[in-house]
Design a protein that fits this description.
It is a single chain. The chain is mainly alpha-helical and 113 residues long. Helices cover 79% and strands 0% of the residues. The protein has four helices and no strands. The chain is elongated, with a radius of gyration of 18 Å. The chain starts with 12 loop residues before the first helix and ends with a helix. The mean pLDDT is 86.
């Protein structure tokens, strides 16, 4: 993002460390809650798939935040690749929710198209 004087803002090492630490906390909590929710034993397969997908997404997001917290930078292609794959599982979980809502709203024929 360009500033008024023409310089480009680069986050400081402490900002990367803070972001990494917060990310580790958030995605660890999401991972824990998704595992706990799947462990409780929801009857619906789609609900278990949703929590499984969210758990995989959180697991794949963690390396990126560990990299930020430890190195104080973010330039890892490997961690970014994990982040990209995590997006697939996020949208899979979103699609499961959309499908569940379509069943609730009885819009299944529109959803299948």
């Amino acid at each position: 993002m360009a500033e008024d004087d023409g310089t480009i803002y680069m986050p400081s090492k402490s900002e990367y460390i803070f972001t990494g630490t917060v990310g580790i906390c958030v995605y660890s909590l999401i991972l824990y809650l998704s595992i706990a929710s799947a462990w409780v034993g929801f009857k619906s397969k789609s609900t278990r798939r949703f929590f499984g997908s969210i758990g995989i997404m959180a697991l794949l997001e963690l390396p990126r935040y560990f990299d930020m917290a430890v190195d104080g930078t973010y330039n890892s292609r490997v961690c970014y690749s994990f982040h990209i794959v995590a997006g697939v599982f996020f949208f899979l979980a979103f699609s499961i929710v959309c499908r569940q809502w379509s069943g609730l709203l009885q819009l299944g024929s529109y959803f299948r198209m």
